[in-house]
Amino acid sequence: MTLLVRQLPPGPTGLPLEVYCFTRTVAWGPYEGIQSDIFDHLLAILPEFGLLVFQQPGGADVRRLHGVPGAAVAAMG
Fold first, then answer.
1. Distance between CA atoms of 58 and 45, rounded to whole angstroms?
2. C-alpha dihedral sign at 19, 45, 49, 1
3. C-beta of residue 8 within 8 angstroms of C-beta of residue 18
4. Residue ranges of the domains in the chain?
5. Cβ(20)–Cβ(2) under 8 Å?
6. Do the Cβ atoms of 6 and 17 come closer than 8 Å?
7. Prediction pTM value
8. pLDDT string in tens for the chain (77-residue length)
9. How far separated are the first and last CA of the chain, in Å rounded?
10. How far apart, in whole angstroms, are the C-alpha atoms of residue 64 and residue 60?
């Protein structure tokens, strides 16, 4: 089926990628398995290209790094 991968303009946090994939199945379980396999492969192959995954930290992450008490609990609720 159709597969489209494209790079978006680079920004201060890196080079965003868009991945569009279509499957023949519409059954939820098999679809989730296929999606999981695609992401597992992408994450595993990144080092081959010298790339790293980046996720911008949120406020709770910053508070936890600064040792603010209860930051982990506040992030959950």
1. 26
2. negative
3. yes
4. 3-76
5. yes
6. yes
7. 0.61
8. 788 889 999 988 888 889 998 999 999 999 999 999 999 999 999 999 888 888 788 888 888 888 876 655 555 54
9. 41
10. 6
Query: Is residue 40 within 8 Å of 57, Cβ to Cβ?
Result: no
Q: How far apart are CA 27 and CA 22, in angstroms?
A: 13
- Pairwise CA distance, residues 23 & 31, whole Å: 7
Query: Degrees (nearest 5) of the Cα angle 26, 27, 29?
Result: 135
* β-strands 17-21, 3-7 pairing: antiparallel
- CA 17/CA 10 separation, integer angstroms: 10
Distance CA 26, CA 8 (A): 28
Amino acid present at 29: G
pLDDT in tens, 46-60: 999 888 888 788 888
Residue given tokens 């010298």 in the structure block: 50
